Amino acid sequence: MASSSSSSLFVITFLLFSPLCFSRESPSQIPDGTLNLSLLWYGQFTPVQKERVRDFIESLNFDAKEGLDPKVSAWWKVVEGYQERYEVKEIYRQKSSSRTVAPKIKVKVVRSYVDEKMMFGKDLTIDNGEKLVETAVGNMSKVVPVVLLSSQVRAHHVGFCNGTCQEYGLTIKSNIKGQEKKQPYVMVSDPEVQCPGECAWPFHIANKGPHGMTYQPPSGEIGADALIIQLATGLADVATNPAITESLFKSEAPYSTDGNHTSSIYIVDPATKCFRVFGSGAFPGFTGRIRVDPLTGGAFNSHGINHLKFLIPSIWDP
User: Fold this and answer.
1) CA gap 183, 186 in Å, rounded
2) pLDDT tens digits for 161-177?
3) Helix axes 72-81, 47-59, angle to 10 degrees
4) What 3-state class would DSSP assign to 170?
5) 3-state helix, strand, coil in the chain (%, to 5)
6) What Pfam families is this protein classified in (predicted)?
7) Which of 6, 53, 77, 261 could in theory staple to 21 by disulfide, Cβ–Cβ 3.0 to 4.6 A?
8) Element (H, E) at 222
9) Which pTM does this prediction carry?
């Protein structure tokens, strides 16, 4: 279900009982965008962790009618809906009207690189963090590097384990003409060893606030499913940030002007704003209404490819 704020401007959509997709009548769709991901596996990961990440990414665009609901792809449709919240450049405007409709954002892994020896060391700093982003990008263009940090990497110095174990942003790189160019990235940490009480709840007891119930992870591995929660948060936040989508999807940042012009209202980090919210009725120490697999005991709120189950964060619905 959804709960609305007093101003009724925004609605938090919870996965279990809301379809997370909208019905729109429009003459055409604007061209689809593509989120090309370059994965850097920094450190040692279990086979289950690697498999869960691949399956989750593939599930984002899994729109087949078969399979159980709610789907991961329905959650991703809310992310796609953020493209309507700000102006879209002329090549994306509908010819017959000034209205725009949300594009599909196809997510595809174009490169996967493994560095088990951790060439930049086990302590993450701002400097070697930028080097990790550069390594993930390589010589490719128009990609979003996703740096996955294993449980061996200590990331406290850059703010991880302080309310989140993921971050996204823009770093500066030089192109072939020597000009600076902004490079979006996502960095995700495996919190199972470093700070499970901060970033692996509800699979581990919370380190502060009401502890609430803990659940079994749907894959059977805390490190795998805690990684998915952080990855889902990072991907949703990076794909809805106008400063980043300006370059990815040829869109313009929201604006607010006086006079006869329209004001565009938007929200940044829609998944981060639903921290520790996984279902309807959530409150501190309670995930909200989620499901538990009677066979495995794993907690989940969405389905992916091959009937796989995931627990992913709720997202603020525009």
Assistant:
1) 10
2) 887 888 888 776 645 45
3) 60
4) strand
5) 25, 25, 50
6) Phi_1
7) 77
8) helix 222-240
9) 0.80
